[in-house]
Amino acid sequence: MIKADAIDALLPQTQCAQCGYAGCRPYAEAMAADSAPINQCPPGGDEVIAELAALLKTKILPLNTAHGVAAAPTVAVIDETACIGCTLCLPACPVDAIVGARRLMHTVIAAECTGCALCLPPCPVDCITLAPTGAARDRTTQHAASGGLRRRFIAHRQRLAARGHERSRKKSGAPLNAAARKQATLDRALARARARLTKTPE
Ligand code: SF4
Ligand code: SF4
Ligand code: SF4
Fold first, then answer.
1. 94 in ligand 1 pocket by Cβ < 6 Å?
2. How far apart are CA 63 and CA 44, in angstroms?
3. How far, in Å, CA of 63 to CA of 79, rounded?
4. Mean pLDDT of 136-161
5. Which strand (E) or helix (H) includes residue 130?
6. Where are the beta strands (DSSP E) in 29-117?
């Protein structure tokens, strides 16, 4: 879908879902299908609205603040003394910016966090907070980071989908195919790497 690709290329890739869609790509596809207006992305603010209006040859609209306001960037911080290692925040992070493993403390890779806040609600002990990065919202910086964020969002969704298929396969008793075997191996390697990263040095 070329039009959706071009629209998605302008979106910030924060993957925060404030637009009402499950990430930038679904919102881009809705705009490409003329089923969503161009003014629902708070992280993109007026700049992204203007870029979308130029691309789609439509008029500029004010940001619809029912979806939020264009705020300065934030980063998630985990209180590692309070973290119980439940792992519930891991699947919630759309760009895989949290590392940790079961019963071990979790931590946020600040450089990869978009401040989307999606990890806060699943945390049962409320040990995740958002803090300002200290930087101003800047379209050039946002655009420069978008390629990496898009790749991590796609990888995240593919991994969640593969796990969903695996749960269905186990329920049905069907044998593991080659792709699923490869994914299971990758998942185990990732879990081991996360466990190593979160171990406190002696
Ligand atoms: S940055 Fe957030 S609000 Fe903007 S398009 Fe992406 S998911 Fe939607
Ligand atoms: S760590 Fe939390 S705030 Fe940061 S990108 Fe992941 S879900 Fe969003
Ligand atoms: S959801 Fe909260 S308690 Fe559970 S691993 Fe994540 S930060 Fe730790």
1. no
2. 9
3. 34
4. 95
5. strand 128-132
6. 74-78, 98-99, 107-108
pTM for the full model?
0.83
The amino acid at residue 121 is P
Contact status, residue 198 vs residue 104, Cβ threshold 8 Å: yes
Ligand 1 contact via 127 beta carbon (within 6 Å)? no
And the tokens for 33?
């299908």
pLDDT, one tens digit per residue, over 47-67 is 999 999 999 999 999 999 999
Phi/psi of residue 125, nearest 5 degrees: -115, 10
- What pLDDT sits at residue 94? 97
State the Cα–Cα distance between residues 78 and 89, nearest whole angstrom. 10
Map tokens 């792992």 to a residue. 87
On whether the CB atoms of residues 22 and 30 are closer than 8 A, the answer is no
Minimum mean pLDDT range among 57-66, 72-81, 155-164: 155-164
Ligand showing the shortest atom-to-Cα distance for residue 96: 2
Domains belonging to the chain, first-starting first, are: 2-67 (1.10.15.40), 72-202 (3.30.70.20)
**CA pair distance 88, 144, nearest whole angstrom:** 30
Ligand 1 binding pocket mutation candidate from 41, 65, 156 (most atoms within 8 A of CB) = 41
Q: How many CB atoms lie within 10 A of CB 96?
A: 16
> For the ranges 53-67, 91-105, 139-153, 187-201, which has the lowest average pLDDT?
187-201
